[in-house]
Amino acid sequence: MSNTFLGMPSLPVFGHGNLNATEPFPQAAHRELANTQLRANLGHATHTIRDKRLKVVAELPDWEDLRDSGSAIKDATMAKLPELLEQFEVNFTARGGTIHWARDAQEANEIVTGLIRATGETEVVKVKSMATQEIGLNEYLQDQGITALETDLAELIVQLDHDKPSHILVPAIHKNRSQIREIFLREMADVDPALSDDPARLAEAARKHLRRKFLTAKVAVSGANFGLADTGTLTVVESEGNGRMCLTLPETLITVMGIEKLLPSWTDLEVFMQLLPRSSTGERMNPYTSLWTGVTPGDGPQNVHLVMLDNGRTAALADEMGRTALNCIRCSACMNVCPVYERTGGHAYGSTYPGPIGAILSPLMTGITSEDNNSLPYASSLCGACYDACPVKINIPEILVHLRGEDVDSKRAKLKVPSQMDLMMKGAQWVFSDGAHLNLLEKGLPVGRLLAGRAKVIKKLPGMAAGWTQSRDIPAPPGKSFRQWWAKEHQDTAAVVPGNTTTEGEKA
Amino acid sequence: MKIALFATCIVDAMYPRTARATVTILERLGHQVVFPAGQACCGQMHVNSGYFKEALPVVANHVKAFDTDDYDVAVAPSGSCVASVRHQHEMVARRCGDAALEARAAVVGAKTYELSQLLTDVLGITDAAKQLGSHFPHKVTYHPSCHGMRLLRLGDRQLNLLKSVGGIEMVALPEAEQCCGFGGTFSMKNADVSAAMNADKAANICGTGAELCSGGDASCLLHIGGGLSRQGSKVGTLHFAEILASTFENPAAITGDVQLAGSKR
Predict the structure, then answer these.
(1) Segment 18-77 of chain B within 8 Å of chain A by CB
(2) Which of A275, A451, A489, B31 gets the most CB atoms within 10 Å of its CB?
């Protein structure tokens, strides 16, 4: 490396790893929609969580105030993120922890590998973590000869099945209990061959399988839900207790956390510990919340590391319209209420982050032109259910529309034949930018009537519009438009009422 | 009161009956309705598809048509188009760097109401049978469209007006708050997902045993009705304005022109 500092690396630094759609969303959705088992599992699971969430949220009279607080605290965090990161580093380090900074997925994977190698271990236990899914840590470690064992029940199921998570909170939401039984029988060496698909028996099998690992593991890898800047404390919020095992029993604890996970102060947990469990699992409080601040001599891991991950987060932060996506606390309420996610499942989005938040977060972190991520912002009918459910009030529909604009503009820059959509939008611009133009087009309504024929219905249209008529009819248009009717009704009065607004365009 | 009608492009071209019903209701209440003739479209198809540059002249046209002192309030029989006028127009102007248009768009947006908003909040209509003479002796279910529900926060305004119509039998729609899957160009770009959403909506509607599904947005009703029609269902769709305009003497023809479903029968 040169001794001369040549300035900042070129910006923005986009994210890499498992952040991309692997094919255009409509194509992936088409395939997933055909999976009726998936549709049934997802429909059941999302509706159950949805109802639970609504019930516990309704218990709090100040829920909307809490959402406002959550949103305001996160906005304030993002506004002074560099200072807060430095403050966190000072406090975390002062308490015996070691901080590593990773610009992207590759750097983070290398750092974690190095830290594990230094312990001489080749097996680690893992706490469920989105950040490590995002960077593809397990696969990277495997290539380096290190086995990472997922200890969250659903993550374990997915890992045993050599599958990918399809939901950020319930990664195996696409599997039902009989499928899980089959996976355990096939992949778990020490399983009872008489295993039933009773959920309690399945959990017991996983528990027995994991217990030995917890007691022998020397290294654990985790993510974190929150990092508290004023104390240098890390937090893991979980349900099963496997996280607590990993965070307390091993000698070495390596945490990978996105830089946006900070909260300014310990007291901010007051707000977020009310928002998160209710929004994610529909519980008033989650069973296990672990907080640790550096090293406590003689108690818990004595070798505590934190890898601070950028991987496209600063790129998202630089987008004025999109930056609030970083406020996300990974509760998954948006995917549980999303009518698109409910029907396609998480795999259709490709990225580690599926659903409405993934449709904005993934392209924000990778850049809109990265692979097929430009198809993700269109994976929404803009119904707005996600915005209403979001505990930190991220205006997901508005950011989706913003990113669609980014996509359209990015394509304008390239010289190419305009798409059907481009042509339609250009044509519609002319029609809709003047009442007289629309009137002219509407004079052709009888032609549409003719096309519809005696059945008075249009069943097939060409090109892009064929997408509509593949499942929907279009009624025969009326003989004349409203404005034509109005002009005829008011042709006498129009002349005598001074300044009557009906005269203006009709003369055109 | 002098009320400017924003017909919206889809109603103007495809459902003139809905606009005429809106005029009928307002005139029945003694108000003067004007139709700013330069109007065309709110531009949300462009905006929601990411074509901000193309949306700008459409937005500018709407603002030009409605930025006058010639009326007291503007009304549209659509939650979605009013949401666009109120929430998107300023943003489009800002994004395209037109500060003057942004300011004028704010003025127009502030005096534009969705029909049930105008009737309930401004004109004080709580009983359609009594105050409007509305009579519609049919079994009806109701789909609350997303933008009216979540952007305008219309709540039960449309439903309450419908419930107060004489002779009507309202039946609750299961999972009513679920999107029908229209979403503008979403219905073409993601046609498969859109169709799957519409199929569930249609099944819920048919399960109610209603003759008709009403709502406040012609575009959603076109989508729902188009799906029902393709399935061969006899259940039709009808804008709530037409139900409010219907009286004992002049009942709404539910098998008339441009029905969204059931028209062939």
Answers:
(1) 19-20, 34-41, 43, 45-55, 57-58, 60-61, 65, 68, 70-71
(2) A275
